[in-house]
Amino acid sequence: MMRLLLGFAFATCACFVYVRCTDSNAQDGGIPDVIDYNYHIRPILSDRCFKCHGPDANKRKANLRLDTPEGAYAAFKDSPSMHAIVPGNPEASDAFQRLITKDTSLLMPTPSSHLTVSAHEIKLIEKWIQQGAVYKPHWAFIKPTKSALPAADEDWVRNPIDYFVYAKMTEKSLKPSPEASKEQLLKRVCLDLTGLPPSLDMQDRFLKDDSPQAYEKIVNELLGSKHYGEKMSIQWLDLARYADSHGYQDDGLRTMWPWRDWVIHAFNSNYSYAKFVTWQLAGDLLPRPSKEMLLATGFNRNHKITQEGGVIDEEYRVEYVNDRTNTFSKSFLALTFECARCHDHKYDPISQKDYYSTYAFFNQVPEKGLFGTIDASFADPPNMSITTKDVKSILKFIHKKDTASVDVMVMADSSKRRPTYVLSRGNYDMPGPEVGVGIPKSILPYSHTKYGQNRLGLARWVLDPQNPLTSRVFVNRMWAQFFGRGIVKTVGDFGMQGELPTHPELLDWLAVDFQSHGWNIKRLVKQIVMSATYQQASTVTSESQQVDPENIYLSRMSRIRIPAEQIRDQVLASAGILNPEIGGPSVKTYQPKGLWEVATSGRGSLMNYIQDHNQDLYRRGMYVFIKRTVPPPTMLIFDASNRDQCEVQRGRTNTPLQALVMMNDPHVLESSRVLASQFSHEKGSIEEKLTRAFRRIVCRAPKEKELAMLKKYYETEQASCVQNPKKVQHLMKIGEYKQDKAAVTGSTAAMMLTIQLIYNMEETIMRV
């Protein structure tokens, strides 16, 4: 009877997206001597079994639970002599027998699910059962520990990171790549730490410095740059879903840019991650909170807000709280709490009650789902007002350009506690049992006495030394920022459906080291960029391509296209027209006509796109105005976030539209014009000028063949321009940057087109 019931249960399992979560050992032909539940077995069960036999009690089939040892070892209710798993005895384990049976009516997973378990995976499960079927907590829920450094080539390693990387390379029969050239290394570290290309002066200084400390001196200089905070902030703005409009259909203006100024200031000032987290989660709840602490809490209010009349107030208020809850879990824990909004999580030990217990922390804000109509408020309450006096005294990092005060949304808790209920199916109007504040105990039990019952208590829990996730999640995100891929590839999902770490010992070592050194972000960043791993060349050898095509084991440096904002910065900076201002209101730069107008609701100050002028046109990409319903099209083409919700990792695409942008974007053409005009007044041969242009844009000297091709192209375009004066006039009028009338010549136009060609080289927008 039980076999039939189990067969029916599996047969009725719905098909679902198959996400691989396996260690490389599960992919090769060898069976490890010791089978580890987290690295060999859980991924298989999570992919193939947990949807119907996992944490979600409402969807569990046949009352069988395989994600816990208690459930897997238990006798079947209707057949006490049978067990799904019998430690040490695969033949008596019904779940294993279902994997190997030839009877399709009993086979698990069922043929109708379109899921299969490979022969290799079956051998892993069999050996695991033979070895006692030992369950472990999910790897990410086990507190990280510092392991001893493995053996490595002492001539290659430069800091502890390299020991772990070298050991894994050796295990995979790989060897490190040679060190990158000084030109490549300088461009790489400049783009990674400031988001800007090195100037010719910096290039010359570094190339002439033969001292052993030359590279470290550059790293220290970049870490001290005011532009370091800008580069580091971009990823955090994606996480915090920062935008300059409220979202939804009306999509009116909001003034959250002072919070962005604070984020830049925090990174530049090297606030510890503990301080950075605490102030953003609960700065308003600290004893005697300063205005800076209050401003930091704007992190929680960056979500979309409706301004459309006729909406149901409570429905949208609940959506705001959901957004804050989901953003918290993704940003600090890298867990998909949102999956438990309507039901128990199907894969991770997060119940619906756990979700609403976390939700309760963010459910005390005295806010409304709808506060006034469009343009009635650029900062819905609770908010704070920033005056000129504030900027001159305590908020000196705010770049306020006029005398009017600026209102910014911040967090506050009501004086009277709002009760929180489990919402049936996630619906705002279907309250169930009341819950208090809490966090899934599978991560770290939440003690009301130890931590407190508000967001400040939540911040204390997040930063508790026993918390297994916080430091791991942050160092992994930093790693992904520099290597293009995290040690855990799924940067936003450390749950059971996420990828396993490729270098678990390294991840844990970094996590513990980060905590034990005061959560020092600049120290962590310097550790990474000073490693031999980071300083490798990015050249792909046939051997590494065959063994490790995705560069998982880091036997070379990754080649990454720079982020959308930096592509704009690269163009403007290399032409010498970038406005280096830090912070301040967002700017509206060149954009195709009519985009806002076709998507507007017909109301509000953002109904029409009104372009800015003068120096505002040449500000960094991170300051370009983001209207959620119509994000900046050029940056969207290069995979920038639309800031609709928390985004932990941007996609990376390669499309023809990107080439069209580089060939036709007004800023690319304008920068080419300005740089060509500058060269028209400089002495030197065409070869010398092309070399200077190439170094400013690509950040290295051109090879002889490259220079010859550029010169030939220049000569061809020069001949064309001499015969076509109208073409010259047209080219030299592109963009609003002041025109140099003395440079309106065929030679300058030809140089402009040649510089545009350099901007269109792949290497220009690649960090190699």
UniProtKB/TrEMBL annotation:
Q: Which residues form the Cytochrome C Planctomycete-type domain?
A: 49-109
Q: Which PROSITE patterns does the record associate with it?
A: PROKAR_LIPOPROTEIN
Start and end residues of each DUF1553 domain = 454-714
Q: Which Pfam families match?
A: PSCyt1, PSCyt2, PSD1
Q: Residues in domain DUF1549? A: 160-365
| The protein's name | PSD1 and planctomycete cytochrome C domain-containing protein
Q: Which organism is it from?
A: Aquirufa echingensis
